[in-house]
Design brief:
355 residues, alpha/beta, Metallo-beta-lactamase, Chain A, 8-stranded mixed sheet, 19 strands, globular
């Protein structure tokens, strides 16, 4: 009996120690009382820009095109952001770095993150020029890097995943604030999304900043299944020449039951979080359906199309591709469905017919 009491006393002491150190508590750390968090998805047309503010600390992720420089200057001035703790250029393309000089002309900066330190474009060189004026060099982050923005934890999930396409060098950044989370993907395409899906990183996020302005090359089904967002924001210009956001991406988001905000229809979108709940405010009310272009029955009627996969080369093709006629019957797999299902099974799209 005494032995039982000693064991019980020992267990109570262990439980007390664990409670003091927080051991065993796997839940998210909730913000302190009075803490504030907001993301401003700024309407910069066919480009990207987002301002993140937490407890007076600020981070600017991209800055739109060169013609958005004045807008970025005035936006920071209007919101009294005189210092940016972080500037993140997701990648070197002009529609992401072009307007950053305007922001840097108004605000000082603590640290600048970018996948590369050199890129052959006037927009990028101008970005570096204004950083130099502020006495700041570009830091190329590494996958897995973490840093705090006030009480929000930021993690770099991907950077320079491939070097053959600037879009796929994009910094992918996940921000966690209490029980809410935000995933910024730059212009990362399907290749990066698949790498992320097998990376072991936590991808599930409350809000997804949709990759590549809603291009068909991003926001794959396999990626959405991993992220499981409740909300998505698409930074895109009205009537753009690329057809963004594409019907394929809008259909995938609708299939996943994601509520979508678009800067071409909502203007600037501001999302605030108390660590549990999100509130979205928009600059304007859309006059038409944000899912315009995919049809009201897309969820039930989008069953896919015909493909032919090669079990030996692990490539898949359109049925009329020249490679299909050369394929042996034993290696041939006829498939009807969505291309992302084939990709999930390990098949890659043919480089010739580009299914």
């Amino acid at each position: 009996m005494r032995t039982d009491k000693r064991i019980l006393a020992f267990l109570l002491i262990i439980a007390f120690v664990f409670s003091l150190c927080g051991c065993g508590d796997s839940g998210p750390k909730m913000p302190s009382e009075g803490s504030e968090f907001a993301v401003h998805f700024i309407d910069v047309g066919q480009a990207d820009a987002a301002l993140v503010i937490c407890n007076g600390k600020t981070m600017l992720i991209d800055g739109g095109n060169t013609d958005s420089s004045n807008l970025m200057y005035s936006y920071l001035k209007t919101h009294n952001v005189k210092h940016l703790d972080y500037v993140v250029a997701s990648h070197a393309h002009g529609d992401h770095v072009g307007g950053l000089p305007g922001a840097l002309n108004y605000a000082t900066v603590g640290k600048a993150l970018c996948p590369v330190t050199d890129f052959d474009s006037s927009a990028f060189r101008n970005f570096v020029k204004y950083l130099t004026k502020r006495g700041v060099d570009i830091t190329v982050p590494e996958t897995g890097d973490t840093f705090m923005l006030g009480e929000a934890e930021c993690t770099v999930l991907a950077v320079n995943t491939t070097d053959n396409e600037p879009n796929n060098t994009s910094i992918v950044l996940r921000i966690v604030y209490g029980e809410t989370s935000f995933l910024f993907t730059g212009d990362a395409e399907r290749e990066v999304e698949l790498a992320l899906a097998s990376s072991g990183f936590e991808l599930e996020s409350t809000v997804l900043k949709v990759g590549h302005h809603g291009s068909y090359s991003s926001t794959s089904y396999v990626f959405l299944r991993n992220v499981m967002p409740k909300y998505a924001v698409i930074s895109v210009g009205r009537g753009n020449d690329y057809g963004h956001p594409t019907p394929e991406v809008l259909s995938r988001l609708r299939d996943a039951e994601v509520k979508v905000f678009r800067t071409d229809k909502h203007g600037t979108v501001i999302c605030t979080s108390d660590g549990k709940n999100l509130i979205f405010g928009t600059e304007k009310t859309p006059k038409d359906d944000v899912m315009d272009g995919i049809g009201s029955n897309s969820v039930t009627t989008d069953s896919g199309r015909d493909y032919v996969a090669n079990k030996s080369s692990m490539k898949f093709h359109y049925p009329d591709c020249a490679s299909v006629s050369k394929m042996s019957e034993e290696n041939r797999l006829d498939f009807h469905g969505k291309r992302d299902e084939l990709i999930t099974q390990g098949y890659d799209p043919c480089g010739s017919c580009k299914p």
